[in-house]
């Protein structure tokens, strides 16, 4: 009897010493941390409700940077420790930096996240009328399950450059008294044929047509009077004519506000967590670390969801040019600064979903409420397209996070042969910068309304902060 008791104690002891620890974040956080987490997530939800597109996020960030004393970066400017600069890339991406005490050749601490999210973009000739209903044609942006975007309220965001060159800003459908827009789906009574389609084909790209109106202009007989009436209203409100759509970027996004989810209010539902749930904590951390040892650089980029091409995406040279210009401000070679730099590539990961357990491997995936997820490699089918952080760099990051008491986990996006996804990590690692992926686990990623846990959002902030302070 006594022997068994002793054996039991030995087992517990050995387990504690040898097994990796897995515990819910709430069981590891102090009361103070829990309070700080709540406060932080309140700010995050406000941010989500005012920033639904990359342009709106850049506006939010630069307004705050201006208020906090950051100044626009100029090549060749004189910089000293504690100085704060930023670069606004065409209103769609932003880089901010706080100069550290150490020489720039010791490298910078770089955090990268993206501020674009899957959505429906309007085509260049979007407006048409069919059977006295007015529509916009769309071309979806990023990877979506198309059927999810029907029968929900949509809002319209973006800019129109008029023939005269004037820029008109559009944001309609977010406020209480504003109308929303809508994509129809077939009623189940008549969907027998549609229901035979595969889920991928359930709604096709050319069926994502947004209903925008149904009233004709006047009582005269004639064709396209609904379209005419819509153009009249658009002309009154925005001063535009039909051809102005040619030089516009209009994005339809879900009109839902961010909300707490669950009886315990432990989660947040919102459109576009991917990747504003990493962008916002990275931005906050960058602002809160005012006297770093190493220069901190935070890049909040565009175009990740379409593959990072284009001059506001991370496949372009704008980050490299900024880093080279920054080094030159100190009379140093940018290449040498980059080689000594470290980067957290902050992007979301898939959280384990008990309803769909088959796609993830239970020992190597992220769980809700187990903290920010560090991912050594991404890619699909043989790590294709990954930058694969070195064991040495993972070791460095691990010591850093543990040392700062950050709640974190590791996880891979999907089973080996299941699929997977890439991030911007590879493009930054290709600049000869030690880079690793880290981010918040998300349920229903790329759906119009995504789900995250508050404790994971908070631990992402703690991780970025610890990294920037290192
Ligand atoms: Mn992402
Ligand atoms: Mn994504």
**Strand percent estimate:** 15-25%
User: What's the domain count?
Assistant: 2
The geometry reads as: globular
Structural class, from helix and strand content? alpha/beta
Unreliable stretches (pLDDT < 50, length at least 5) are none
Major sheet summary line: 9 strands, mixed
Distance between the ends = 52 Å
Q: Approximately how much helix is present in the residues? A: 25-40%
CATH topology of the largest domain: Aminopeptidase
Briefly, what CATH class of the largest domain?
Alpha Beta
* Mean pLDDT value: 96
The CATH architecture term of the largest domain is 3-Layer(aba) Sandwich
Report the CATH superfamily of the largest domain. Zn peptidases
Number of helices, counting only DSSP H or I runs of 4 residues or more: 10
Would you report the number of β strands?
A: 21
User: Which strand order do you get reading across the main beta sheet?
Assistant: 1-2-3-14-4-15-19-17-18
Give the distinct bound molecules.
manganese (II) ion
The whole-angstrom Rg is 24 Å
């Amino acid at each position: 009897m006594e022997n068994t008791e002793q054996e039991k104690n030995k087992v517990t002891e050995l387990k504690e010493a040898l097994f990796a620890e897995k515990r819910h974040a709430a069981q590891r956080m102090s009361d103070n941390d829990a309070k700080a987490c709540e406060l932080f997530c309140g700010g995050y939800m406000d941010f989500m409700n005012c920033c639904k597109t990359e342009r709106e996020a850049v506006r939010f960030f630069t307004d705050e940077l201006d208020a906090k004393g950051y100044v626009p970066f100029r090549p060749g400017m004189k910089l000293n420790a504690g100085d704060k600069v930023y670069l606004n890339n065409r209103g769609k991406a932003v880089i901010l930096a706080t100069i550290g005490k150490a020489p720039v050749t010791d490298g910078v601490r770089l955090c990268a996240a993206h501020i674009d999210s899957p959505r429906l973009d309007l085509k260049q000739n979007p407006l048409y009328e069919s059977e006295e209903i007015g529509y916009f044609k769309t071309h979806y942006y990023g990877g979506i399950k198309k059927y999810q975007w029907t029968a929900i309220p949509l809002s319209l965001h973006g800019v129109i450059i008029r023939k005269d060159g004037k820029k008109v800003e559009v944001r309609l459908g977010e406020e209480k008294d504003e109308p929303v827009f809508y994509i129809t789906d077939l009623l189940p009574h008549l969907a027998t044929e549609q229901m035979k389609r595969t889920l991928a084909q359930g709604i096709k790209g050319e069926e994502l047509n947004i209903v925008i109106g149904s009233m004709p202009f006047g009582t005269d007989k004639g064709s396209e009077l609904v379209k005419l009436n819509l153009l009249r209203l658009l002309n009154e409100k925005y001063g535009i004519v039909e051809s102005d759509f040619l030089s516009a970027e209009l994005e339809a996004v879900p009109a839902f506000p961010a909300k707490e989810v669950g009886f315990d209010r432990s989660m947040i539902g919102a459109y576009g967590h991917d990747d504003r749930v990493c962008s916002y904590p990275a931005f906050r951390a960058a602002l809160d670390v005012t006297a770093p040892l190493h220069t901190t650089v935070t890049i909040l980029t565009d175009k990740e969801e379409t593959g990072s091409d284009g001059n506001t995406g991370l496949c372009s040279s704008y980050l490299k040019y900024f880093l080279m210009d920054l080094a030159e401000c100190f009379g140093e070679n940018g290449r040498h600064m980059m080689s000594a730099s470290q980067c957290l590539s902050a992007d979301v990961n898939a959280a384990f979903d008990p309803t769909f357990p088959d796609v993830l491997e239970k020992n190597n995936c992220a769980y809700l409420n187990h903290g920010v997820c560090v991912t050594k490699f991404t890619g699909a089918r043989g790590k294709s397209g990954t930058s694969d952080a070195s064991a040495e760099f993972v070791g460095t990051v691990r010591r850093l996070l543990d040392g700062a008491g950050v709640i974190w986990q590791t996880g891979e996006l999907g089973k080996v042969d299941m699929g997977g996804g890439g991030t911007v990590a590879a493009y930054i690692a290709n600049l000869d910068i030690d880079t690793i992926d880290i981010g918040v686990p998300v349920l229903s990623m790329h759906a119009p309304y995504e789900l995250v846990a508050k404790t994971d959002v908070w631990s992402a902030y703690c991780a970025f902060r610890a990294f920037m302070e290192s």
